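Data deposition worksheet. Section B asks for the primary sequence of the deposited chain exactly as it was used as input, without tags or linkers unless they were present during the calculation. Section C holds the resulting structure in token form. Section D is free text for depositor observations; keep each observation to a single sentence. Incomplete worksheets are returned to the depositor.
Section A, Depositor: J.P.
Section B:
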Amino acid sequence: MPNSITHLAPTPLSLSDLLLNLALGIVLSLLFAWHYVRFGRSLSNRVALAKTFPFIVLTTILIISVVKSSLALSLGLVGALSIVRFRTPIKEPEELAYLFLCIATGLALGADQRLPALAAAPVILVVGALVSRSGVTRKDENLFLNITIPSTEDEKATFDAIHAVLSQHVTYADMRRMDVAEGELQASYFVNCRSDEDLIAGMDHLRRAFPGARITFVEQQNFLGG
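Section C:
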């Protein structure tokens, strides 16, 4: 019984080691954020997601630093995580890859594995940059845009406003479908875009021009027959 109590009792946490790990976590998480914004291919707002990287890395470091010294705390963490449900969907595999990188780095630093974390992170980022660069040029920049906004009395003015925004960011925009039902106006466009940067800028512009709008870009090859 005394031995069991000894194993369950947490060992003292070194504050100096924790601060060092947190400092390294800040540096690496900021590097991950820069890399994601610079080389990421996601159509979502990469800057907004990148801002969460430091919180993920530092929180993971803190959790692992606390629970690694106590079997009881480790079991408690497993029980706590088993009842947690995250409802925010990860829409693209690239987002999941970067989040997993942040968590893995936090795990390594929290376990005081600083050298493996510092050695592996640059290698992973370099490989990610090379993979991203190798696929920069698309053979087909044709996309389908679906936008859903609350219907208005002057529908022609609304469509003119949508077209005015698109004309600033795409080289070609052709409306293929229009639906008005249950207080919503939905339009589908076939667009051609010069680059991902123009595409993201166009999406952000549409969101500012039509607050609350639901906007989706889909590559043509994702459709049957595309």
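Section D:
Strands lie at 142-150, 172-181, 184-192, 214-219.
Residues 142-222 form a domain with the Alpha-Beta Plaits fold (CATH 3.30.70.260).
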